[in-house]
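RECORD TYPE: protein structure
NAME: ExbD/TolR family protein
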Amino acid sequence: MAVRHTRRRKRALKADINVVPYIDVMLVLLIIFMATAPLLNLGVNVDLPQSKASTIKTDTKPAIVSVNAAGELFLTADTLRNTPLSREDLVAQVSAFAKAHPDAPVYVAADGTASYQTVYDVLSLLQSEAHVAKAGLMSIPSQTKAP
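PREDICTED:
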């Protein structure tokens, strides 16, 4: 009887990484971010007027009181992000911010079509009732260069 010796070939080790699961996870995350990005509204839509004033540099982050065209008030300061407030709540929140950050300015970002009286009333509230030392108006730099 003849004994047959069959040699078995050993398979070479495969050193490749299977990246298909990583691609699947990446695509799922991409879809999630694409779906949620439009839902993140980070600001109040305010059409700021243009001016030729220069930009003010500050070390502390300012509080921003936004006034939309309808005259509604929103506050962005510290942990608050575009929170709609009544005038009384605005005074309380801004005065607390002014006590915590005495050197921080408070800016009023009013829509260009907002009533001048409303903007003036907000500035008066900030200075008289909230006791803000530095209150000012925000604007967009003008597209034309100043002479």
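COMMENT: The mean pLDDT is 82.
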